[in-house]
Design goal:
Blueprint (H helix, E strand, L loop, with lengths): L2 H12 L3 E4 L5 H13 L3 E5 L2 H11 L7 E3 L7 H12 L6 H10 L1 H10 L5 E4 L5 H11 L10 E7 L10 E5 L9 H19 L4 E5 L10 H16 L4 E6 L1 H5 L1 H7 L11 E3 L3 H14 L3 E8 L5 E3 L6 H16 L2
Parallel strand pairs: 1-2, 1-4, 2-3, 4-11, 6-9, 7-8, 7-9
Antiparallel strand pairs: 5-6, 5-10
Helix pairs in contact: 1-13, 2-13, 4-5, 5-6, 6-7, 8-9
């Protein structure tokens, strides 16, 4: 674990938030929960059968003292959550019966309802669910934050022994949600990513719109998309420090920027990298994580009314601890 996540944990401890963990049959979740409680990073709500959760903790030889365990099948809040879910989704065909049945069978939806009802400040899931299963209830129930055009996914990448980015820390977007965003969406993702970087890293965001081309070195509709996205970003979000289209080396290496993009306002110092599509973003973050030995925290979500974050199914328990700490800090800023 790098210095970056230690600082995030400190911030999380300064104003304790309550985070829901619904995947209590996953041992990484339980091990992470015991560490989160020991380190005082967040208050936790574990969703599931109390006996099974405590049996799991016993088998793993961990303590879960201080965690609140809520079983959807015997909570007095079930009717309240079912009514709320029905209200939020009735225009989409939800019935009171279906709402109740969903809450009893889908713990991720139950967790999101706890956040919606202000019984928790955020949720982290995805260790054993696909991204779509984690995000669907969040998008349907919590909706987007005021003034946000779309919800997008990002990773905080903490690269060891790296003098690029902000002391080796970068934000990569979108690596988890929007498959082929258009220019307007890419500009909105850049704006959301700048806010997330400032909030979670505490440094000035310097944004590169990435491509296989730098300043017209190649001609292709994919290049045009990033040029147009950069133009829209300059127009709609004039406060951003942003440039594009740039190849990755021109975005993050000052000497390459000098040669390939002289006069670029970011000068090879980018710390927020906006990828042209989900293929590039997902491939890019995994290469940096696996080959560059980077800590990868996410996919975090930006643009939701309240924080719900996804985990990669290849995550470790340490990753879960990191994402819970980041979610708690996001919740402080809502």
């Amino acid at each position: 674990m790098g210095d970056y996540i230690d600082k995030i944990k400190e911030r999380a401890r300064s104003d304790i938030k309550t985070i829901v963990l619904p995947e209590t049959t996953d041992k990484r979740t339980l091990i992470a929960a015991s560490h989160i409680l020991q380190e005082g990073i967040a208050d936790l709500i574990l969703v599931g059968n109390e006996e099974k959760i405590l049996d799991g903790a016993g088998w793993l030889d961990i303590e879960l003292d201080g965690a609140k365990i809520i079983d959807p099948h015997n909570t007095e809040k079930l009717d309240e959550y079912a009514d709320l879910l029905y209200e939020v989704r009735k225009s989409k065909g939800m019935t009171p019966e279906k709402a109740r049945e969903t809450l009893l069978s889908d713990y991720l939806t139950f967790g999101v309802m706890m956040v919606k009802a202000n019984d928790a400040d955020g949720m982290v899931a995805g260790a054993c669910h696909a991204t779509a299963d984690t995000l669907r209830p969040a998008l349907q129930i919590l909706k987007t934050a005021p003034g946000t055009k779309l919800v997008s996914g990002f990773f905080i990448m903490d690269v060891p022994d790296c003098d690029m980015g902000y002391n080796g820390t970068f934000l990569f977007a979108d690596c988890g949600l929007n498959q082929d965003p258009g220019p307007e969406e890419l500009a909105a993702i850049a704006d959301s990513s700048a806010k997330s970087f400032k909030n979670l890293v505490g440094a000035k965001p310097i944004i590169a719109m990435l491509s296989h081309s730098t300043k017209g070195s190649a001609k292709h509709p994919l290049v045009d998309k990033m040029v147009e996205a950069t133009r829209i970003a300059h127009e709609q979000y004039p406060n951003l420090v942003i440039d594009g289209e740039l190849q990755t080396d021109a975005a993050i290496v000052p000497s390459v920027a000098k040669a390939k993009a002289p006069g670029s306002e970011i000068g090879g110092k980018a710390n927020v990298l906006i990828f042209p599509n989900l293929d590039a973003g997902n491939i890019g973050y995994k290469l940096v994580q696996r080959l560059g030995k980077a800590e990868a925290y996410g996919p975090m979500l930006q643009g939701l009314a309240k924080p719900v974050n996804d985990l990669s199914r290849g995550c470790t328990w340490e990753d879960v601890v990191g994402v819970v700490a980041l979610t708690a800090v996001q919740a402080q800023l809502v």
